[in-house]
């Protein structure tokens, strides 16, 4: 029943997205067309309208509305956000290219000195969008610091859409009736409302509802567990395996937030724990946060949770390195509930000393029906366990041979190469795609 509800809700959001994307074309086709407009020109404008509608809807995708993300999961939403960014940019780019091909005289619009303002706005919006995409695709290669990239990503996105709207209003060819103008007024108002929510109202609500650091604990594998509590009352409820965005040492208005998995039990209401591996400037500062420091938490988010599959007869967890954190939340929660369903954890690490939560995982075996298989790339002398990587044969040996779809759910989190290989193995083993759930955290 829950799965059917999610499918129906997903269908609703997809249909609404398609409708909002195509509505400018429908408006363009209905009513009186400006006289003397060639078909190729109308087609060019239609592509531009679609691209602009997609640009505006990008703000919806990244606004973290839980109702929208719940049927898909954050991974899928952000993956779609990245792919549709490229598609929408191409649509908008093709708009002037068609004009130049069929009417080369219009190339004069590229001259920013002599071109009318409508052309200047359009080209500036296209340039802002191109800069946004390039700095996102090559952020790591160009060594753009994460927080600085986030700030400029927001600025360029607002510029791209704002300039494109200005181009539409100044061109005005297809705003020749009041209700057509009203459509773009509604689109503009909706977009401005989204900006106010994302940039003002949401940060303001976080500022008024902070968490404080209760303690910090060092973990194996260069990880640190950060425990937070509320000054008054219990922490918010979450599903085991979900994540949240943390802002520490800055205001929530500063665009300095980072996403981390929750590693604590969902049954624990006094504190919430995030376990973070030191991989950069921000993560290396986590262990230095003093008790009482303010931390702002935006969440929880994500569909990566065993609680979304209460029908499952068993769970296979596959973790690599610090990817164990959301899985640890699920294991701790299931232990606190006294859940006796069969569980298997395949946990891959480079060395034995780097196995985060090693001792606690061993202790959970007494509280859960849990089988743990450690896989080490560089095992110590005398190691008799699995070596190298999580292989297809190893997965086959741990999954029940006689299983049906929806009986066993697989949760996978770790480095991208490992996840890619495991997903391919699961597919070859006949595991239904609907039974495979991954958390990649490639959100930017």
Can you characterise this structure?
The chain is of the alpha/beta class and 444 residues long. It folds into three domains: 6-204, Four Helix Bundle (Hemerythrin (Met), subunit A); 211-301, Beta Barrel (Elongation Factor Tu (Ef-tu), domain 3); 306-439, Rossmann fold (3-Layer(aba) Sandwich), CATH 3.40.50. The protein contains twelve helices and twelve strands. α2 (39-61) packs antiparallel against α4 (74-102).
**Rg calculated over all Cα atoms:** 25 Å
Report the helical percentage: 40-55%
Instruction: Give the class-level CATH name of the largest domain.
Output: Mainly Alpha
Number of domains: 3
Examine the secondary-structure arrangement and name the CATH architecture of the largest domain: Up-down Bundle
- The shape is elongated
**Largest sheet: spatial strand order:** 4-3-6-1-2-5
Strand content: 15-25%
Q: How would you state the average pLDDT, rounded?
A: 88
Provide the succession of SSEs.
Answer: HHHHHHHEEEEEHEEHEHEEHEHE
Low-confidence parts: none
Q: What is the strand tally?
A: 12
* CATH topology category name of the largest domain: Four Helix Bundle (Hemerythrin (Met), subunit A)
């Amino acid at each position: 029943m829950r799965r059917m509800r999610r499918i129906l809700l997903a269908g609703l959001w997809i249909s609404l997205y398609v409708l909002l994307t195509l509505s400018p074309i429908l408006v363009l086709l209905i009513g009186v067309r400006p006289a003397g407009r060639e078909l190729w020109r109308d087609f060019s404008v239609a592509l531009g309208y679609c691209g602009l509608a997609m640009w505006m809807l990008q703000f919806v995708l990244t606004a973290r509305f839980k109702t929208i993300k719940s049927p898909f999961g954050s991974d899928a939403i952000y993956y779609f956000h990245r792919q549709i960014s490229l598609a929408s940019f191409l649509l908008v780019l093709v708009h002037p290219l068609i004009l130049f091909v069929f009417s080369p005289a219009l190339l004069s619009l590229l001259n920013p000195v002599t071109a009318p303002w409508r052309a200047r706005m359009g080209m500036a919006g296209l340039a802002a969008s191109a800069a946004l995409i390039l700095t996102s695709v090559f952020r790591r290669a160009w060594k753009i610091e994460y927080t600085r990239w986030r700030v400029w990503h927001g600025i360029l996105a607002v510029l791209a859409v704002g300039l494109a709207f200005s181009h539409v209003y100044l061109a005005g060819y297809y705003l020749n009736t009041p209700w057509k103008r009203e459509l773009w007024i509604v689109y503009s108002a909706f977009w401005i409302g989204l900006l106010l929510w994302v940039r003002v109202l949401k940060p303001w609500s976080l500022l008024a509802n902070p968490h404080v650091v209760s303690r910090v604990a060092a973990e194996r594998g260069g990880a640190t567990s950060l425990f937070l509590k509320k000054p008054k009352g219990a922490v918010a409820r979450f599903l085991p395996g979900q994540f949240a965005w943390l802002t520490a040492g800055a205001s929530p208005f500063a665009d300095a937030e980072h996403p981390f998995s929750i590693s604590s039990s969902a049954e624990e209401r006094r504190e919430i724990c995030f376990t973070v591996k030191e991989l950069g400037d921000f993560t290396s500062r986590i262990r230095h946060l003093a008790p009482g420091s303010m931390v702002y938490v935006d969440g929880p988010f994500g569909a990566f949770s065993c609680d979304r599959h209460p029908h499952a007869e068993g769970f296979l967890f596959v973790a690599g390195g610090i990817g164990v954190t959301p899985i640890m939340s699920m294991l701790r929660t299931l232990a606190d509930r006294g859940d006796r369903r069969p569980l298997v954890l395949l946990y891959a690490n480079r060395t034995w000393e780097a196995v985060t939560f090693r001792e606690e995982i061993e202790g959970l075996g007494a509280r859960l029906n849990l089988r743990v298989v450690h896989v080490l790339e560089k095992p110590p002398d005398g190691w008799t366990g699995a070596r190298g990587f999580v292989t297809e044969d190893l997965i086959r040996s741990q999954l029940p041979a006689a299983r049906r779809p929806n009986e066993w759910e697989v949760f996978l989190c770790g480095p991208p190469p490992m996840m890619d290989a495991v997903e391919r193995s699961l597919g070859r083993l006949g595991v239904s795609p609907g039974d495979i759930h991954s958390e990649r955290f490639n959100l930017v």
